[in-house]
Amino acid sequence: MSMLNVNVKRLDPTVELPAYAYEGDAGLDLRANESVDIAPFERVLIPTGLAISIPDGYAGFVQPRSGMALKRGLTIANTPGLIDAHYRGELKVIAVNLDSQQTIHIERGERIAQLVIQQVPVVHLTEVDELDETDRGSGGFGSSGSK
After folding, report:
1. Three-state secondary structure string covering the chain
2. Residues near 117 by Cβ (< 8 Å), separated by ≥ 6?
3. Are 47 and 30 in contact (CB under 8 A)?
4. Whole-model pTM?
């Protein structure tokens, strides 16, 4: 397994560093750096107390935690949240409560999202008059069926 070194800065000296829950996991758990109540269908910006230096050629993607989504209705509004390599500000999570009945209470230090760091190529676009043909063509939005 290859290893990528990423520098992280604690903006709050008491915050826990992101960590993998299990060996082989793709996402590092991000924690809330403050307690917050999220009313039904409300969006809030939750700080993590961390900043990172993602290397050139990579990007960070903030994604929901499946257990939080299933059990409590908490998800990420702009999933995946994109963190560009040159961003050096605090990592924050745009959380939304999808439960129509219950306010979600998040405790400081609670795991609220996952950070996945992936290699991303620099893309050069070439304008053409026609695209190559494929079996799928322009079919989308359910064109492959549900079975």
Report:
1. CCCCCCEEEECCCCCCCCECCCCCCCCEEEECCCCEEECCCCEEEEECCEEEECCCCEEEEEEECHHHHHHHCEEECCCCEEECCCCCCCCEEEEEECCCCCCEEECCCCEEEEEEEEECCCCCCCCCCCCCCCCCCCCCCCCCCCC
2. 4, 6, 28, 54, 58, 59, 60, 61
3. no
4. 0.86
Domains of the chain are: 7-119 (2.70.40.10)
Q: How many CA atoms lie within 13 A of 116 on its CB side?
A: 14
Q: Which percentage of the chain shows pLDDT scores above 70?
A: 95
pLDDT tens column, 11-64: 999 999 999 999 999 999 999 999 999 999 999 999 999 999 999 999 999 999
